[in-house]
Amino acid sequence: MRHFLLTLKWALLTIVLAPIALYLILLLINIRDAAPSELSQRYLTQIAEIDSTLAKNHNDNAYIFALGFGSAKDKSPITVGLKSLHNLQNKDVSSVDKTQQYALPNLPLENCLAEDDFVAACSANLKKNTHLKTLLSNNRWRINRYQQLLQMSSWHDSPSFNADISVMPFKALLLAQKLYLLDVYQNMDSTSAQFIAEAIEQDMLFWQRLSLNTHILINKMVGASAISINMKLGEVILGQKRVEQIAKCCQLAGLNY
């Protein structure tokens, strides 16, 4: 009985003293707590100003268009992007649609870009692929949407970030980039080397502009990945164009001979 009473005494003391100790710890923390510095207040004001102007100036802002890029074929990326921005700024997790709008197609170069000799591997994959023309035809709307995105001259995104609201459709954007570059490859015979180089450069400039102007680390990481894809596929495309030009020159030389 004596041991029981001793145990009960310590249990009661713990129950009483634990909240008091926690209260004293919080009190000490708050006593040492300082008011927000002038610099932090200035940053918060800048963030609020950026957020308030984003929705108003959306016509040439690629960020708004990119937010809605993963929308269905019959939806406006700008309209969907503005809705996504509203959800992000208001931290409205309940309104975020996390379902996939459509199935993403498989591309003939998903594995070859990771090869050491990616130029040879991707060139071989593309040459033996007999469905590339059909793939590009079925996804023409995605390519056209991506070209619209590339033509926008600015990127101003929101400094707001919420891990529960993944608003930027990175998969759809990177897929569209590959389709766009594959379309350049497919039309290589009917276009000049200068036009091909300009199309590849336009894609590169877009991702460089995104990486330079974004406030969000994950956007910079995806931008770096897209730049890598551009450089690799660009090398494949331009390399194949050089091979074809050499072959044509040899053919002409043979005919003249």
How do the strands and helices of this protein lay out in sequence?
Blueprint: H1 2-32, H2 38-54, H3 62-67, H4 77-89, H5 118-128, H6 132-138, H7 140-150, H8 170-186, H9 193-213, H10 217-256
What do you see in this structure?
- With 257 residues, the protein is mainly α.
- It folds into two domains: 2-33; 103-256, no CATH class.
- 68% of the residues lie in helices and 0% in strands.
- Helix 5 crosses helix 10 (217-256).
- The longest helix has 40 residues, at 217-256.
- It is elongated, with a radius of gyration of 28 Å.
- The relative contact order is 0.10.
Summarize the structure.
With 257 residues, the chain is mainly α. The chain is built from ten helices and no strands. It is elongated.
How many domains make up the 3D coordinates?
A: 2
Poorly predicted parts: none
Q: How many separate helices? A: 10
Cα end-to-end separation? 116 Å
Largest β-sheet summary: none
General shape: elongated
Number of strands: 0
* Assembly state of the chains shown: single chain
Fraction in beta strands: under 5%
Overall pLDDT confidence: 81
- Computed structural class: mainly alpha
Task: Give, in order, the helices and strands.
Answer: HHHHHHHHHH
Gyration radius, rounded: 28 Å
* Portion in helices: 55-70%
